[in-house]
Design goal:
With 460 residues, this protein is mainly β. It is built from two helices and 41 strands. The chain binds 2-acetamido-2-deoxy-beta-D-glucopyranose (4 copies). It comes from Hydra vulgaris (Hydra).
Amino acid sequence: MIILMLTCGVFLLFHNSVCQDTNAVPRGLPPRIRQLSLLNTPIENVPGSDFLTLECIASGNPEPTIEWSFNNVKFIPNKTFNGIIGSPIRHKIQGSILTITNIKGKSDGDANLYDTGRYRCIATNEIGIVFDEIFINVRVIGAFRPGFQYENEPNYIRPLIGQKLIIPCPNHKKGYGSSIRWGIVSSERKIDYWYPGYYPHVFQTSSGSLVYSVVLENDIKESLSNGGLRCILINNGYTIFSNQQVLYEAYDIKQEKRKPELLALLDPEMIAPINSTYSMICGALGDPVPTYRWEYQGVEIVPLRPGGNKLNFEFFEFLPNRLELRISRVTQYSGGTFKCYASNELGEASTIGQLSVAYPPVFNTFFPNEINVPYGKAFEIRCNATGFPFPNFEWYHNGTKLTMKDARRSWTDNKDKHGSVLSFTQISFIHEGVYICVAINSQDTITQSTFIRVQGMAPL
Ligand SMILES: *[C@@H]1O[C@H](CO)[C@@H](O)[C@H](O)[C@H]1NC(C)=O
Ligand SMILES: *[C@@H]1O[C@H](CO)[C@@H](O)[C@H](O)[C@H]1NC(C)=O
Ligand SMILES: *[C@@H]1O[C@H](CO)[C@@H](O)[C@H](O)[C@H]1NC(C)=O
Ligand SMILES: *[C@@H]1O[C@H](CO)[C@@H](O)[C@H](O)[C@H]1NC(C)=O
């Protein structure tokens, strides 16, 4: 009897002291990544921009150590990436900063993405491991091939007056993230003005070709006086110019009336990132030169006041020729159906496109720092994030991606568009640790983490 009471007392005492100890001795804090950011805009082949710098700020107790990986392969200080012998060391890790020099991005006809991919900052302390990551698309400015560059001889074109004329953007390597515009460039390599935009008979197609719906006599005079248009590759403010394309003399005159025939069509499925500027061009051949009108969600896009520039939809604007509609800032309300009509006295043609707004994933709910689950119990946790395109989800345990579902631990795909649920049918100690949920779409990657602690059986 006494012995029993004693053991009980000892047990209780022991139990209490354990409780007090765990309360008194700080258990520390699992690591957290406060911020992971790209500090510059990397562009291949632009001196002064052909590197990337990432900064990762983490906290935790004890203070976590920081490591970096690219597409799941760790960067080791002073060692070539992925152990590739003979390749130069392009990365440098200094404190919270990772720098990669001589970066290279994807280019046409080459499936390799090079430095484009998932960069991860991994923070580890004795309590756990967490990471955050960022998808970096390395921009490539593109280039004109020899013979078609700024300093090369102009290309002389003899058009038929009264007929259409299509001038392709001279032979070039496309780049990545570059766009094409035509314009007049000064001898100091400054853009004097962009060309399509003013006259209703000149526009460009999605492939970057310059189109005259019909060549007018005045086009030749103008081309001779301004020296000819150049095709311009633009990437994040950097520009590369082609040689001049000069209309120097009429080959012949051949006028004939033709009804509009659309050559620059709206993309049937347009996707514009939120907060970006988005342009759509509608352009048709035809004589007389077609005139244009546009509709958004079945409502004609018109100036608020006759002759004014402000339109009846916020952030929408036309270039003077009304062939190009610009949304100066894409918002969550910019999506919808756009329709453009080109008409002249002989007929009308139209093109239609659906715009969707892409936005990065955002978590709707956040995990607590720590979750205590009694041993053997069923448990589930939902990672709730929205975004467009709808995000995909990944789960990590102690820094390792979960790949094998089993009877006791599984997770769902984002089928219901409400995220992914990680569930345990009977939790046990091997399930303990830091869990990270990653939500990814084309716009961004976000992560959140929690520490799932499995509690032993409660004493009787
Ligand atoms: C890597 O090399 C640099 C310069 O040679 C040196 O300062 C640094 O300590 C080295 N880092 C490691 C982790 O060996
Ligand atoms: C878009 O811009 C608004 C206003 O500047 C800002 O509050 C918001 O965070 C931005 N959204 C994204 C996804 O960048
Ligand atoms: C996800 O979050 C949204 C926004 O907070 C909420 O309306 C929705 O009910 C959540 N869904 C689930 C299944 O938790
Ligand atoms: C994960 O980490 C926790 C706590 O650090 C540990 O108890 C658990 O055994 C680890 N599990 C695995 C599978 O690494």
